[in-house]
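Batch job 17 of 40 flagged for manual review because the log was empty.
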Amino acid sequence: MAQNEWVESNGNWYYLKADGQYAWQEWIGNYYFNYWGDMAHNSWVESNGNWYYMNQNGVMQTGWQEINGNWYYMNGSGAMATNQWVGDYYMGSNGIMLENTITPDGYLVGYDGKWVKGEQIVFPISESPTNQQNQQTSQQEPVENNHDNKPVKSLEEMEEYLNNNIDQQHINDEFIKLLNEEREAHGITTVTYSPILFKGVDIRSEELEISFSHTRPNGELYYSALPTKESNQFRTMLENATAPIIYLDSDKTLKQVEKEAAKKIFNRWKNSPKHYKAMMVNGDLQAAVSVHFSGNKLFGKQYVIRCYSSLLIGGDAYN
């Protein structure tokens, strides 16, 4: 009988070892043989607590692999990477590369899975927020007022509260003030607020939580968030997108949140060359921003809130 030899039978491959026994539930080089002795191919293999993927020829794969529309990373031994970073990409507990979400260690990854550099969620050491004396008017009512160590709202309730009560016009007023100060400092014409563009960004800020991309969840580009008749009023239309973090405690007012959100998103784009260039386009332009608040973490009484933000600038650009 042949030994140390491949044997084909009924379209399957087997391996006859030196002792005359067929390989089964074991590795022979970079090939794995199943319980019935057939070579694994086009399939996953679990061995010693690790997962491996065998291609159509039965060869164990290494490196990046796209399998059934998902991306995986197989390390040098072929074992699937889980719960770890591979370069700028994070592999989840099931080995699938995370996309458009927050990683377990607090980083934002975009729709392409790549780390969106610039900010990590850093949790405070103390569970108790710093108490600040509230001297606001009724229009500046604190987000919450609570003096024990328990939050008065769940993370989901706080998210809903912010999205229902934040005044987007206040955010626009503060943002456009910051933007025009920067433009004037460089001798560039100022922009004006556009209620038409706001219709678009108000849709886009919510969509960014679903798909952090200039392509909308329905596959169309960002400008289609406006009806064609309205978008045609603008010869030029550019979008910036970002998703910074803000921290809320029991003494922060809605007005403070609005101002902080506007400042955060402005500085994010100011410190990014390509986004800064879009904000500084010269011409007779209008602009609008919108922020969609998404609860990320609750640490003691402090809420960690992600601000999905869209800016549209439209008009006649001439630089």
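Reviewer: the log was empty due to a logging misconfiguration, but the result itself is present. The domain at 120-317 is CATH 3.40.33.10 (Pathogenesis-related Protein p14a). Unflagging and moving on to job 18.
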